[in-house]
Write a structure and sequence with these properties.
seven-stranded mixed β-sheet; 7 strands; 9 helices; 44% helix; alpha/beta; Rossmann fold
Length: 255
């Protein structure tokens, strides 16, 4: 299915980490969205990479939102482990307020893939933003997502494709290669850059956040290994940490 773009400037992209926007580079060029990024991309003890995203987004003709690299990655994880929702709630309020000012009618966000907890919570936050906008304006907000780590999970869902011309694919490849902090991810990103389309997935009504899952999230399996190695002291889980915060964000949408 061909993807129908909203009017330029009428959409928002909400992602967890700087660099995700490269996966939708041509969509950035076409839709010219307002881009919101939660973390600064610093990971553990690494340097922040948010300025690379700022330059890429500007070059694509899109805009950077007021919530843009709001805090280092470790702060978001510390809040998640401690159950402190204040940083997430502040991001929700800030993004929703700017989307209202810009009269946003379509949101693309990171997916729930049960791979990275901040990716998943970014999806919940984006749906909370949409619910707040709908309650305030009475307008329907289109919700879309896109594959990051687990494209197999989207096989049965309604998708649309934004075709890339040879020139668009070349620009995307150049943008990815110029994003030096993503060097360790170049093999995967290069493969994505050779595709002739960008996949967008309908994300309404969104993830159900059920009490029990059919599979153990990857981040729990990864965390258990880190515990055995002595690199982690606490296991971050869907039931104890991710789901409660997601449900809180979605409840906040009504306030």
């Amino acid at each position: 299915m061909t993807h129908r773009l909203p009017q330029p400037g009428g959409s928002a992209l909400i992602v967890a980490h700087p660099g995700h926007e490269t996966l939708l580079h041509h969509w950035l060029e076409r839709a010219q969205p307002c881009v919101f990024i939660l973390t600064d991309g610093s990971g553990g003890a690494e340097n922040a990479r948010i300025d690379h995203s700022r330059r890429l987004i500007a070059a694509a003709g899109a805009a950077c939102g007021t919530v843009f690299g709001a805090a280092p990655d470790r702060h978001w994880y510390e809040d998640l482990l401690s159950g402190d929702a204040s940083r997430f709630e502040a991001a929700l309020c800030g993004i929703a307020a700017e989307c209202a000012r810009r009269e946003i009618n379509a949101i693309i966000s990171d997916p729930v893939e049960l791979f990275n907890p901040i990716h998943d919570l970014t999806n919940a936050l984006a749906h909370a933003v949409a619910r707040r906008l709908e309650a305030q304006s009475g307008r329907c907000i289109q919700m879309r997502t896109y594959p990051i780590e687990r494209p197999d999970t989207f096989a049965s869902r309604k998708t649309s494709a934004l075709a890339l011309s040879a020139a668009a694919a070349a620009r995307k490849g150049e943008a990815i290669l110029a994003y030096r902090p993503l060097a360790r991810e170049y093999p995967r990103y290069r493969e994505l850059a050779t595709r002739d389309h960008e996949l967008l997935v309908v994300d309404s009504p969104g993830f159900a956040w059920a009490a029990a899952l059919d599979e153990e999230p990857y981040y729990e399996r990864f965390g258990r290994q880190r515990l055995r190695e002595g690199r982690y002291t606490t296991l971050l889980t869907y039931a104890d940490h991710v789901r409660p915060l997601a449900l809180r964000l979605l409840a906040e949408a009504a306030t």
